[in-house]
């Protein structure tokens, strides 16, 4: 299928929207006996333990959200301890809790829809101290690596990317994949949106962790899909690669990769029965790139769609300076992070909200956002309780760091209704919606632009999680009634679609 046949992305987007009718009349139920395992387990491979003693940086979490400056001192080649740090704080198991009747539940470093943890990380590495060149799978449950291939395969990924400069000397290339059924069990065809939301929250953590270890890191979304999936040797009806991240720099690639034979590795069964949702496969195939030339041609800056000049009252933000930002270390914030289950009505300060918005929207080092500061999503807010702001609906203007009041009023009830009737959005201090113009993005990037929009929404959401917990309050990601959100923020958001929703506020104590 052609990436530029954009009617396919529009069809998927329309068919997977939530409406009152399709949500409340749905006969779908959760078959708990058939719930998928939350881990991919290779059978019969030797486990390579990662170092249990992780480095401690004590870098303030809010400082890790900005990419290092060009003059920053960096660690060009990661050690095995660096890799362990990045993998743990991106996707590791941070909490273990036992629930009577349900057994042990393992919580991860990054938020995930339904706590179903369908994103896996693989690594293609050069020869490193304590780790031979090869392709590895990261198993968060036991905090180990499994070597799937021996040899340096980085050139396969570089060529698939159309020779993305960010990957040309990266000693480690991380590949993120999604196993559809592990999330579609609950969310059905809409799970393809979750593929990128949940990859995005992991990437927010991963990029922050790399910064804390002074490792250069860059996200690549433009790559020919088939060779990357062939390297992983995955069944593409069930699992696919979503993103690449070059980690480190300064290590030349070999002139050729070793032979890439099928692996025929046994993988543990996820659940007694799997159900297929063809819309997911159709959408993924429609947004795939066929060759390295396609990837090179696809790569570039996102289209610039400036917000219209403000006509409503502007409220200037007042973020802390770098020197006065809260000092909570990234390690502590990620270990403490969760998803709030109840919010109190305690207000946030304007400075706290300012820090969230400003830090979350700092430049993302990605091939599809090439121009510094370019983004595809705009942030719309329903403010319930923020000192110094009237309650109401707002849009965020990154320049000049201000909120434009679109409509004043108490919209707690409406916020809860927009969030699929979930009281969390009504009880929080603020609900933040990421919206973008899908038509403009598809015209510029083709169907793959849909991946860009959803993934960026996930990264922004992941950063807001970190910024909230770094300041001592909570957050939770929520789903939504798509067209109702657009209508609520119209006419300002009349041509836009929702990509992500997160509620912010102080958690209510039991």
> Count of DSSP helices?
16
| 3D shape | globular
Multimeric organization: single chain
- What is the beta-strand fraction? 15-25%
Distance between the termini: 52 Å
Adjacency order of strands in the biggest sheet? 1-6-5-4-7-9-8
Helix content: 25-40%
| Largest sheet descriptor | 7 strands, antiparallel
Radius of gyration: 22 Å
Mean pLDDT across residues: 94
Q: Can you walk through the features of this model?
A:
By secondary structure, the chain is of the alpha+beta class. Helix content is about 30%, strand content about 20%. The strands form three sheets. Strands 1-6-5-4-7-9-8 form a seven-stranded antiparallel β-sheet, with helices on both faces. Strands 10-13-12-11-14-16-15 form a seven-stranded antiparallel β-sheet, sandwiched between helices. Helix 6 (about 190-210) crosses helix 15 and helix 14 (about 440-445) packs across helix 15.
Topology record:
Elements: H1 7-15, H2 20-24, E1 47-49, H3 80-91, E2 93-99, E3 103-108, E4 119-125, E5 134-139, E6 144-150, H4 154-160, E7 172-179, H5 181-187, H6 191-212, E8 217-220, H7 225-232, E9 239-247, H8 278-286, H9 292-298, E10 314-316, H10 330-336, H11 350-360, E11 378-383, E12 392-397, E13 402-408, H12 412-418, H13 423-427, E14 430-436, H14 438-445, H15 448-470, E15 474-477, H16 482-488, E16 497-505
Antiparallel strand pairs: 1-6, 2-3, 4-5, 4-7, 5-6, 7-9, 8-9, 10-13, 11-12, 11-14, 12-13, 14-16, 15-16
């Amino acid at each position: 299928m052609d990436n530029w046949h954009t009617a396919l992305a529009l069809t998927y987007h329309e068919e997977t929207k939530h409406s009152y009718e399709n949500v409340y009349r749905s006969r779908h139920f959760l078959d708990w006996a058939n719930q998928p395992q939350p881990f991919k387990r290779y059978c019969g491979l030797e486990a390579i333990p990662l170092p249990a003693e992780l480095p401690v940086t004590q870098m303030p979490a809010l400082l890790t959200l900005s990419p290092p400056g060009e003059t920053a001192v960096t660690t060009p080649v990661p050690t095995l301890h660096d890799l362990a740090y990045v993998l743990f704080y991106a996707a590791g198991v941070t909490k273990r809790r036992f629930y009577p009747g349900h057994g042990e539940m393992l919580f991860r470093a990054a938020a995930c829809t339904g706590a179903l943890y369908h994103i896996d990380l693989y690594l293609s590495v050069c020869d490193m101290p304590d780790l031979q060149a090869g392709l590895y799978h990261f198993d968060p449950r036991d905090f180990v690596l499994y070597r799937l291939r021996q040899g340096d395969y980085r050139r396969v990924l570089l060529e698939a990317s159309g020779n993305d400069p960010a990957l040309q000397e990266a000693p480690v290339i991380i590949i993120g994949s999604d196993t559809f059924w592990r999330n579609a069990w609950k969310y059905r065809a809409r799970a393809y949106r979750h593929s990128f939301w949940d990859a995005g929250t992991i990437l927010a953590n991963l990029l922050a962790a790399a910064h804390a270890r002074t490792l250069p890191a860059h996200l690549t979304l433009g790559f020919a899909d088939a060779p990357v999936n062939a390297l992983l040797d995955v069944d593409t009806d069930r699992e696919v690669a979503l993103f690449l991240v070059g980690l480190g720099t300064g290590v030349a690639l070999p002139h050729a990769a070793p032979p890439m034979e099928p692996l025929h590795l046994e993988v543990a069964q996820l659940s007694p029965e799997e159900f297929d949702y063809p819309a997911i496969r159709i959408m993924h195939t429609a947004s795939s790139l066929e060759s390295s030339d396609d990837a090179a041609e696809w790569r570039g800056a996102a289209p610039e769609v400036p917000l219209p000049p403000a006509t409503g009252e502007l409220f200037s933000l007042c973020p802390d300076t770098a020197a006065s930002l809260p000092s909570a270390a990234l390690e502590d914030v990620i270990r403490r992070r969760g998803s709030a289950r109840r919010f109190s009505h305690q207000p946030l300060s304007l400075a706290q909200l300012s820090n969230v918005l400003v830090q979350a929207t700092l430049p993302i080092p990605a091939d599809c956002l090439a121009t510094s500061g370019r983004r595809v999503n705009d942030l719309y807010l329903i403010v319930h309780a923020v000192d110094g702001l009237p309650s109401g609906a707002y849009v965020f203007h990154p320049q000049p760091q201000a909120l434009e009041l679109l409509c004043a009023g108490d919209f707690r009830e409406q916020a809860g209704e927009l969030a699929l009737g979930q009281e969390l959005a009504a009880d929080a201090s603020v609900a933040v919606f990421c919206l973008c113009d899908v038509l403009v993005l598809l015209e510029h990037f083709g169907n793959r632009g849909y991946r860009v929009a959803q993934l960026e929404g996930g990264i922004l959401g992941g950063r807001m999680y970190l910024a909230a917990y770094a300041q001592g309050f909570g957050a939770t990601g929520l789903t939504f009634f798509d067209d109702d959100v657009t209508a609520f923020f119209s006419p300002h958001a009349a041509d836009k679609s929702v990509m992500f929703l997160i509620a912010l506020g102080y958690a209510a104590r039991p």
